[in-house]
From TrEMBL:
The protein's name in its UniProt record: Flavonol synthase
Species whose genome carries this gene: Olea europaea subsp. europaea
Keyword Plastid: no
Stretches assigned to the Fe2OG dioxygenase domain: 196-295
Keywords in alphabetical order: Dioxygenase, Flavonoid biosynthesis, Iron, Metal-binding, Oxidoreductase, Vitamin C
GO biological process annotation, one example: response to molecule of fungal origin
Pfam families found in the cross-reference section: 2OG-FeII_Oxy, DIOX_N
Keyword Ribonucleoprotein: no
Length: 334
């Protein structure tokens, strides 16, 4: 079982205004030095209620090729459903540590459960974040053992959100397919079809006495197909663009969409996974709710055959998602 989450470290550090050395990033990572200050990046915003499908296809494709990130509004998920998701997640992380540790990760649980460490850290540095992982779809993949029992409304809030989220993701997969000359169903089918795993993660970034030195999550691309993210109101997401790190401007009740590694691979590089990281705040707790849409573990992912020819040879290996996942978490070459 994992112990000593960042929440516990934060409660001690706020009294002394310093942070342990394992959280202090090297100068080439420290946000105070590496962020382009005074500029907020306005990533593309797409209105999913637009009745012009051809326009939506073009917008999603262009955003995915040139940015790897965009926000969607009028997406069909009620504000109330998002508010409830946020409310129950916040309540869980505010429980006493002993209650949270009832669903702590174990060596057998894999990625699911409550914990703080996730992947091999370069130079032993840690992210200023605790998290909870559990699958929310399909039903055959869910293990309720890793879902909080408290608050009691946690399960209903997550199930309702996941149900609406699937409608959004199906639209996005269709537009991504059509945007590179495929038939509407082909991108989702290549990713695992109806067996696609929806992995919920809650990130909890407590106030940090030295946000100039620490990161919530270090720079990375997501290993998912798509990541669909809800943030709370506290700024923290940064994107690397034109050789600079920028804060991303949030739109209230929008969903933030990341193109992940598997979409980049399946599109043979036409779509680009977004390189991003998260910063932390001195006064406020930041939280986010990304859902990672992942192929099943045994599913093989590679460039879609229609996109590969003599002029466009395959740029990526075809491999089982579980093998890709293992290499990425352990910082091994793909």
């Amino acid at each position: 079982m994992e112990v000593d989450g960042v929440q516990a470290v934060a409660s001690i550090c706020k009294k002394v205004d310093i942070i342990p050395s394992e959280f202090i990033r090297s100068e080439n990572e420290q946000p105070a030095i590496t962020t382009l200050h005074g500029v907020v990046l306005e990533v593309p915003v797409i209105d999913l209620s637009d009745s012009d499908e051809a326009k939506l296809v073009e917008l999603v494709a262009e955003s995915s090729k040139n940015w790897g990130i965009f926000q969607v509004v009028n997406h069909g998920i009620p504000d109330e459903s998002i508010s409830k998701l946020i409310e129950v997640g916040k309540e869980f992380f505010e429980l006493p540590r002993e209650e949270k540790e009832v669903i702590a990760k174990t060596p057998e649980s894999g990625i699911e459960g409550y914990g703080t460490s996730l992947e091999k850290e370069i130079d032993g540095k840690k992210g200023w974040v605790d998290h909870l992982f559990h699958r929310v779809w399909p039903p055959s993949a869910i293990n309720f053992k890793y879902w909080p029992k408290n608050p009691p409304s946690y399960r209903e809030a997550n199930e309702k959100y996941a149900e609406k989220l699937r409608e959004v993701s199906d639209k996005l997969f269709k537009y991504l397919s059509l945007g590179i000359g495929l038939e509407g169903h082909e991108m989702k089918a290549a990713a695992g079809g109806d067996d696609l795993i929806y992995m919920m993660k809650i990130n909890y970034y407590p106030p940090c006495p030295r946000p100039d030195l620490a990161l919530g999550v270090a720079a990375h691309t997501d290993m998912s197909t798509l990541t669909i993210l809800v943030p709370n109101e506290v700024q923290g997401l940064q994107v690397f663009r034109d050789d600079n790190w920028y804060d991303v401007k949030y739109i209230p009740n929008a969903l933030i969409i990341h193109i992940g590694d598997q979409i980049e691979i399946m599109s043979n590089g036409k779509y680009k996974a977004v390189f991003h990281r998260t910063t932390v705040n001195k006064e406020k707790t930041r939280m986010s709710w990304p859902v990672f849409l992942e192929p099943p573990a045994e599913h093989e992912v590679g460039p879609i055959s229609k996109l590969v020819n003599e002029e466009n040879p395959s740029k990526y290996k075809t491999k089982k998602f579980k093998d890709y996942f293992y290499c990425k978490l352990n910082k091994l070459p793909q």
